[in-house]
Amino acid sequence: MKKAFTDDVFAVVDLETTGTQRNQGDHIIQFGCAIIKKRKVVKTYSFLINPHREIPQAVENLTHISNEDVAKAHDFSYYASKIRKILENTIFVAHNVNFDLPFLNYELVNAGLEPLTGKAVDTVELAQIAFPTFPSYKLRDLTARLRIKHLNPHRADSDALVTAKLLLKAIKKLENLPQATLNTLTSLSKGLLRDTDYIFYEIGQVARQTKRPLPKDLIQVKHLILKKQNVASRRNDVASPGSFPQSDEEKKELFKKNLRFRRGQVSLINRLHDFVYSDSDNSLVVEAPNGSGKTFSYLMAYAYELYSGRKLVVATPTKVLQEQILKQEIPQLLRVTHLDLDAQIVKSSSHYLDLDGFYNSLYQTDNPIQQTLILQMGILIWLTETETGDLDELQLTNYQAPLFAAIEHPGDARIGTAFAEYDFWNLARSRQEQADILITNHAYLANHYMDSIWGQNPFLVVDEAHRFVENVASSRNDSLQFESFWGMCSHLRNLLFYAEDSAKARFGNNLEFKLILDKLEKDTNDLIHSINKIQEALYDNRKFATSWEEKRQNAISLGFQGQDLFNSIKHFKHLLNLMQDNIEIVRQETNQLLFLLYHQQKNLLTSDDVLIRDLQEEIDQLDYYSEQNYLLLDQLSDPKKLDHEGFVLEISNEDDPLSTNLTWLTLDPEEEVKQLYHYFDKKLFISATLAEQDDFSYTIKKLYLDPKKTLTYRAKPSFKVEKHLKVYALSDNNAPEDPNSPEYETFISTLLTQIKDYKHVLVLFTNLDVIRDVFSRLSENSNALKDYEILAQGLTGSNEKIAKRFGIAEKAILLGANSFWEGIDFKHNGVDLAIVTRLPFESPDQPEVKLRTECLKKQVGADKIFEVDTLPRAILRFRQGCGRLIRNERDHGVFVVLDQRVWNKSYGEHFLSGLPVSAKKVSKQQLLNVLRNSKQNE
């Protein structure tokens, strides 16, 4: 059978330019092109072009094309006719076609030639659709993932050739799709850039010429093709559970060919096994250093007891760690032990695709935005591959696209709908009910510990336990964003009365509609006034704040004890109840309007479908704010809660009461944590940083455990850490000592420009403003770090996006604070150099910190807070920062401390003594030698 595109000629083009502004004097410096005929690359072209202007240093760093390289080259006018002839009667293809084609046409027109007007295809969109689970769609990352050799990234000739190979791989992937999937993709593709839809149209046309049976592992439901799902039946209870290998010889026999016998790990396994099998002990706190094999150890210690019908619940802080346990540690456990156990991840329903919602989204009559369209098309392909329907497989860094509101699973049972039998959330629940090991995150466990999914009297392992209580507290934090609320109400009024196609404009002459609209006009106004009255009342109490933090652009953040902010609970409850009544009135009347619209749907225009959907979204928003309001009323109704909650007013304009928003924080979740513990047995709390020397008292107190009933254990590393980790701490009178001085920021920036051999560098700060200043200085000196991708928290994307780029990039420097000390995981690559710019004491100006401090004053007294809370928290975070480097015995890394207080202050020794190896005191010059040469540290 004839293949698609055998008669087409593709010209895959890449340009290197002096910049992106063609109208402001930027020009092409290299033209690269690969010609595809009969689906094979048959010829390539490459021309260096003189732009008759300086090539910026940043462009030279990226492309390695210098002013000297183009000085003797011809200018574009010399090549214009030849380029025009090469591209004539071809399909123009580029990776970001809306840059390359307009830029090239601009140069052609300036050279007196006609612009190109043929078909044009974008490979960025094609890749996003064809490979929906890829973490990045940058050309360099795609070629690495698809194993396409890419010899000279950011050179036009090399980029054009690999883009051609990418195009062919995307075409091959698409033409193997089922016909029904191709049909839907072709229908949706009309909204893609330029003529990218031609790829789908042509593949679909050729595919229809022959009958292709649906593969046995796929099933068609309506117009969707899904991978068949299997829910394994519960293991037969008579299966032999085996017995725990008591002796070293038995373990060596089991480990053979699967796991190296390491004395430190075996000792940990034995200690955990003794705990699980003891009759009396119920809580154990274990510090297990990185590389000690802690995850496998606790899984093996519990595994042999799971045949009694009890489950093991493992709670971790991050998705990356959950995936690692499921896909690496559990399979290794089963290979070693030969046990028949099943493990599943437990997460909220919103992580799963709602098939009914997704199917309906495909048939919305309005044109979706580009991001939504590409996402929908990618999901259609993903549905032929996914066995879980877990949206995390798409590796997105932003779930704020409008589509997600429609396609995230709401968590109901889904009975009687078109896709009920294949519902991903219901299937996940079935698997979880039958599993022996359930892996979840701290926050989900905190909010769902009474769920029947855990089974009767389950075992509990809290991994990364140093973060558990804070994650429980954070999961209980909430807010009422009054600004967004009254903004939503204003949008509702616009839909009803003021927009060109408002409900009033369309139906105002209909008596039934008019009666409801007249009520809504007054009642939406009343609702906005009731919101504003609460804002004004909160704003008036700002003088009672216990802390005051200035943000950028006239914004402030104020912290309050509950009794101070709500000094008249009766008055605030009255205002909140008034707002609640107004919400309900507006909700009912908007529903009445929707009811009338639904009943007249046959007579409505297509644009009215949009109005119906928009009004339904507004009702959903009203429900959300109603729920938040009830939560706040619940706080005010219980004096005990007011004692244990802190409140923060976020005021986006210090001079405007109507910019006031409210957040409430759980400062002391002791009651919730202890209730959670009640539901679980043999509770293990394990992490690499739980003790200071041999003292676990801070951790035990922080976890709300009874010290008399809690056992402790410090595991030993299973390799010599000093051979893998080097620690250097600066001590030099010629270097600035005050971390708050402007000279210190200059000092940090200068040091960073000296980094040479290290591939993944993590620079840890305690202040986002300092990150901004250092990033600015580095940007001004980009030539010194031309081989590195510079990533900065708050500046180069979301935290998730930055972490993803850091993991993918060949060489990167990441400037991060807060969660980058410990909370965000890097996939793929580790860290080989970590630099601490400042000891990680929390800022006392932060409202949350101030509120917690006020709470602690009542418990331990003001003079004890530094000793019992501030210092231990900082040491823990410091140790976690160091722990970024050595995750296993294959890692090598260097930890650098620039803050000289580790030598000059009495508390400094506590930081250094908490590290796994001794710190070497170095001068500024010695430190520069370290940064320039990674080899000396291996």
TrEMBL record:
A motif (DEAH box) lies at residues 463-466. Its EC number is 3.1.-.-. InterPro entries: ATP-dep_Helicase_C, DEAD/DEAH_box_helicase_dom, DinG, DnaQ, Helic_SF1/SF2_ATP-bd_DinG/Rad3, Helicase_ATP-bd, P-loop_NTPase, Ribonucl_H. Keywords: ATP-binding, DNA replication, DNA-directed DNA polymerase, Exonuclease, Helicase, Hydrolase, Nuclease, Nucleotide-binding, Nucleotidyltransferase, Transferase. One of its GO terms (cellular component) is cytosol. One of its GO terms (biological process) is DNA replication proofreading. It is an enzyme of class 3 (hydrolase). One of its GO terms (molecular function) is hydrolase activity, acting on acid anhydrides, in phosphorus-containing anhydrides. 3'-5' exonuclease. NCBIfam families: dinG_rel, dnaq. This is 3'-5' exonuclease DinG.
